[in-house]
Structure formats: structure tokens, C-alpha cells
Design a protein that fits this description.
about 350 residues, six-stranded mixed β-sheet, alpha/beta, 15 helices, single chain
Length: about 350
Amino acid sequence: MPSIAVAVTDGMPFFELAIPCHVFGTDLFGRGGVLGWDADAGGAPGAGEGRAAPPEAASPEDWYDLRVCAVGTADGDARARSWFRTRTAHGTEDLVTADTVLVPASADVHGDPPGELVAALREAHRRGARVVSLCSGAFTLAATGLLDGRTATTHWGYARLLGERYPAVRVDPSVLYVDHGDVVTGAGATASIDVCLHLIRRDFGVEAANAVARRLVAPAHRPGGQAQFIQAPLPERTDDSLAPLLHWATQRLAEPLTVADLARRAHTSPRTLIRRFHAATGTTPMQWLQAQRIARARELLEASDASVDRVAELCGLGTAANLRRRFTKAVGVPPNDYRRTFRARRAA
């Protein structure tokens, strides 16, 4: 069971704190909870603190063990702004030994984070933990030095300040999240959901992430490089939605789709489609198609025994060589290595 420690400090914003707790394992995921998992039907895990009802694709034995860890507070009592208090029996020792340590946000982006938290994050990373920040939590990660020389992101409204305070960090204010493997930084607010789903996708695979996304009524996968916000929203016209076109395209990933094909389906010109696509998704039609094909390849590698050649054919990437090149660039490992690693992790 992979453990996730969510660091809580006094005065922390509560929105980014609530999201990982909601996604990874509070009581909201119990009987009849958000994931709709029936303990009587599936075999109930223990009712201990932090146990979550898993999505359809994960078993009770290997879903996350959530630890909400108060750092630098008395008796585990931390204020989330001035409206809520967080009481927890977990502290710094539980944080340091977790598989993943998540910093939801910073209580004060202009001040220094608690020294105890900075030291704990360094120690957790040294021990091999994956360290993750959401929104302004990037300021805390930057204070540890773990972001020095790396690209990182935060809420676009904090990006300039983060760069000024920590010039050794390459701040990208335009993306949803940046994943270096051992360190992940995410943008603000609802992008925190994208980061959490990305972690589930890495740990449990596409099927599990999609199951959680369905229950959260959230996009199953928004690539980390997607824009944080759209400058000009689409007009409020139901017939202007790209949803039917996107659904149509995802059902035909094996076909050699072009911008012209998509434009014909949408009954518009390629130029207009590109403009509408960028306004709605922050990316281009072909970049979006590429991301969908990589996601489909991951799903096939996880759930089937199809050869790399067959996977390439089914997801529309043509040849095994093209799949290996594009998959390795997007995911970080070749398809066969991804399949072996994923299955070994599931069997462990």
C-alpha cells in the first residue's frame, strides 16, 4: 500500500488541502461515498483513519494509505485559514517515512516556510520519497533546494514572485504541472485535481485514474503542458462545443486523422478549428490527438498482451519505432519497460 503524507501547517489555505484528502482517502470514500464502492459487495478494508474505498481498478489491499501530518503545530491542531481546524495524530515522523509527501499550499508566500517542514522534506526526499507541491506549495519546495536548476510551476499569479524569491528555479507559469519523477509541482486551484489524477495514473495506471476522474466529474487526463487558463472563453452556444468532435476522434484514434478530417467533421475550416481548439483546450488539434494516442497506448500496455507493433497500430501511431520514440518522449521510458514496470508494481 503506497503511503501519501499530506503536510499541514498553521494558516494553510484549505482548498488545495481538501483536494488531495478527498482524492486519496478520507472518510468521503467510505461506504456509499464518492467512489460509489460498496463495502458489502467488495469486501471492506479496516475502518482505520486514512483508509479509502478504492476505485474499480484498484483493490482494497493496495490503495493509498493517507496520512495527514501536522508540522510545527501543537497537538496536531492546525488552522486552515481562519475557518477550519485540522486535528491529526500524525506528525513529522510519519511524513518523513511516507512514499509520497505532498505540500498542498503555503501559508505565506512572502515569508519563510517552517524550518521543521523544510528539513522533513529534504529528509523524505533523501530517503527516496516522491515530493509533490500544489499551487503555492512550490514556495516550500523551492526553500528546500529540491527545485534548484529544475523547471517548476505554481499558480500563474504567484509565478513571478516564485522566480524572484528563488532565482535558481526555472518557473513556467503556463503549464498545469511538471513531473521530474522524484519531484512534481502543480499549478493552483483545480489543477490540483489534475496533479492527483496524474499521480494515480503513475501509481495504478490509466484505468484507475479514469475511474476516479469519472466519480469526480473531472477530465480524465489533461496533459501537464496544457495551458493553466484560457484567455478568451468560447461563446455561450451549445452548438459551439467541441465535445462531440473530441468524442468522435477518440473513437477513431487508429485512423490517420488530420486537421482537415477534424474540420470536416466539425463543419468548419481548418483555420477556424485550430483557433477554436486552442481557445477551448490551450493546445492544437494534433497535439491533443498525440496525447490521446499516448494515453491509449498506456492503457493497452497495462491491460493487454498485445505486441508493441499491435499497440502502435491500435492507437494510431503507425509503427513500433514511432510508438517507442513518441512514448519514450512523453512518458520517460520505452513501451516494453513501462509494461514490465507497471506489472511488477501491481504484482508487488
